[in-house]
Amino acid sequence: MIDLFATWCAPCKAQMDGLSTLHSEYDDRVAFVSVTNERVGGTLSRDDIRAWWGRHDGDWTLGLDPASDLMAALDAGGVPYHAIVDASGTVRWKSA
Known about the structure:
With about 100 residues, the chain is α/β, with parallel strands linked by helices. The chain has 3 helices and 5 strands, in the order βαβαβαββ.
């Protein structure tokens, strides 16, 4: 389960409870990763992102993709964005 998000995104914040519930339900049967394309520097640090993550019960893998490579690979138009990818790397479902 791939989740593209940003700390400034209100819908991304709102989805965290649901994602946390799903993560708990599926436990180790589904790998979750949430990735932000925010650029670190200036007013945003890696610690800021980690702190946001912790305040919103993020309990799975967190990634940083400032070049938006993953967003481009998924052809995502914005955040939040979700995709389900199987073990072979094939995208089986993605949000519109």
